[in-house]
Amino acid sequence: MSSLDALIQQFTKLPGIGPRSARRMVLQLVRKKEQLMHPLIIAMQHAMEHLQTCTVCGNLDSQNPCAICTDDRRDASILCVVEDLADLWAIERSRMFKGRYHVLGGTLSAIDGRGPEAIAIPALLRRAQSREIVEVILATNATVEGQTTAHYIMDRLSDSNVKISQLAQGIPIGGELDYLDDGTLGAAIKARLSF
Amino acid sequence: MSSLDALIQQFTKLPGIGPRSARRMVLQLVRKKEQLMHPLIIAMQHAMEHLQTCTVCGNLDSQNPCAICTDDRRDASILCVVEDLADLWAIERSRMFKGRYHVLGGTLSAIDGRGPEAIAIPALLRRAQSREIVEVILATNATVEGQTTAHYIMDRLSDSNVKISQLAQGIPIGGELDYLDDGTLGAAIKARLSF
């Protein structure tokens, strides 16, 4: 296989990238070797060498503990529990949360045999029981697995003095009622706000 | 900027990749460093070091002359003239052409100031005038620029004994008449085949 075909094949292994997109990307890379391919190699090598999992929260960063865990301007008394790195990024983009995180790295799953130990729940319980933590926000996905995991954590933390909260469910900003699924609409009616 | 953000930003510079796709790709890469990121770095480094433009036809390959130009099983008497590497790849995928190529690297353009010298036309004329060439297929795009370029080459080769051809225009395989643009339908009617 030529080095071109090998490169295209590597790109098709990435999520959402089919053969056509991979060819387009590789074509652009080989056309602009110095401006595109070289910086991309450097960025990947840097990520490969320096990225490490934060031993405190499970975030991925070039430093350990991560930039969020070491940022003194962030509120160390609120922990936001997320399933995954992508969820942490999503919450950071909203710019509405200024506390710290705990990345589980998955959900509880009886089928896949993932128990509490497999997804950093013991570490979360230890952190939550430390004196400085006042609130734990359970920001797992609104899926069956996510909610099961949230309930498990809620149950385990019920004896402690820590406040437990979950993200509000309802109509997305800009959402049209006609296109919403019935479950979301039902939840939004049930949780309606009175003025 | 963290090495993660830097990597995401590099990916957004590729064609068709927005911030969301870039994040998805990077997330997958950092999750599977050894299985995905490392092989991708290696493939890119290999391409970076070994890919070179074939001095005969303008193709990109890890050898020069390229694998197509040096393949004795391919018919050296037919030249297929294409605008771009992507067009060469597309024709190779059709598996219907077993001759050699000439990659122009663009089209003639008065606006952008690209004359015949800028797009490898002198080299094409030299190749076409060699004794072994019997046919030149002008497979430029069916755009105004592509057709202008094809006409220019046709004009310059009109004195030589070489046979000149163009790709057939008509209805795509599986195409529905109702969805075809009028130009294509008109061309297909004009070029209709009698039985």
Present the secondary structure layout.
Two copies of one chain form a homodimer.
Chain A: H1 3-12, H2 19-31, H3 33-50, E1 52-53, E2 60-61, E3 78-82, H4 85-94, E4 100-103, H5 121-128, E5 135-138, H6 144-157, E6 163-166, H7 182-190
Parallel strand pairs in A: 3-4, 3-5, 5-6
Antiparallel strand pairs in A: 1-2
Helix pairs in contact in A: 1-2, 2-3
Keywords:
alpha/beta; homodimer; 2 domains; 195 residues; four-stranded parallel beta sheet; Helicase, Ruva Protein, domain 3; globular; two-stranded antiparallel sheet
| Number of spatially distinct domains of chain A | 2
Which class of the largest domain in chain A in CATH terms? Alpha Beta
The rounded Rg of chain A comes to: 21 Å
Number of strands of chain A: 6
Based on the coordinates given, report the CATH architecture of the largest domain in chain A. Answer: 3-Layer(aba) Sandwich
CATH fold description of the largest domain in chain A:
Dna Topoisomerase Vi A Subunit, Chain: A, domain 2
Reading side by side through the largest sheet of chain A, how are the strands ordered? 4-3-5-6
Number of helices of chain A: 7
- Global geometry of chain A: globular
What proportion of the residues of chain A form beta strands (DSSP E)? 5-15%
Largest protein-protein interface? A-B, 45 and 45 residues
Residue share in helix of chain A:
40-55%
Main sheet of chain A, how many strands, which sense, barrel?
4 strands, parallel
Please write the string of helix (H) and strand (E) elements of chain A: HHHEEEHEHEHEH
Distance between the termini of chain A: 68 Å
Uncertain segments of chain A are none
Oligomerization: homodimer
Counting helices, strands and paired strands, the structural category of chain A is alpha/beta
What is the average per-residue confidence, as pLDDT of chain A, rounded to a whole number? 90
